[in-house]
Specification:
Pfam families: DUF1934
Protein name: DUF1934 domain-containing protein
Radius of gyration: 15 Å
Largest sheet: 10 strands, antiparallel, barrel
Strand order of the largest sheet: 1-2-3-4-5-6-7-8-9-10
CATH architecture: Beta Barrel
Organism: Pseudalkalibacillus berkeleyi
Order of helices and strands: EEEEEEEEEE
Distance between the termini: 12 Å
CATH class: Mainly Beta
CATH superfamily: Calycin beta-barrel core domain
């Protein structure tokens, strides 16, 4: 990856399966991808509604991923393959214990095409109770150099 930051189009697709029901969500946003030390960072904003916005930063390393969301939602969650990781989720009613058990994670970026993809497959536990299986795919498309 180039050392400078790259403006990217972010397409986020989430599939959540819980209690036999499946829900799909999709988000499109503009973001920035950059490399710092031993990690790649992706930053973008999510507009929840006309008054609420969430800034999302994703830190991607070879073995793990960290997602930090702040604004209308505050959350910090770690992902590492075949590992249960504790995280934090701040709700209007106070903090909620959250954990993820990641089955797989994969990130690739191609400098030539300026395209990439982050894939995470994981189980979520709220307060120790399983709350669904998540499949998260983030596709990135950078402007041509």
């Amino acid at each position: 990856m180039d050392a400078k930051s790259i403006p990217v189009k972010v397409s986020l697709h989430t599939k959540v399966t819980d209690a036999g029901e499946t829900d799909h969500t999709e988000l499109h946003s503009d973001g920035t991808l950059f490399e710092k030390s031993d990690a790649v960072y992706l930053r973008y904003d999510e507009v929840m509604n006309e008054n609420d916005k969430v800034q999302t930063t994703i830190k991607i390393k070879q073995e793990d991923v960290t997602i930090i969301r702040s604004g209308a939602v505050s959350m910090k969650q770690w992902f590492a393959a075949n590992t249960l990781k504790e995280g934090t989720y701040e709700s209007p009613y106070g903090p909620i214990q959250i954990a993820t058990k990641t089955d797989s994670l994969d990130f690739n970026w191609h400098d030539g095409t300026r395209e990439g993809k982050l894939t995470l497959n994981y189980r979520v536990l709220f307060q120790g109770e399983e709350a669904g299986y998540h499949e998260l795919i983030i596709r990135l498309k950078g402007e041509k150099a």
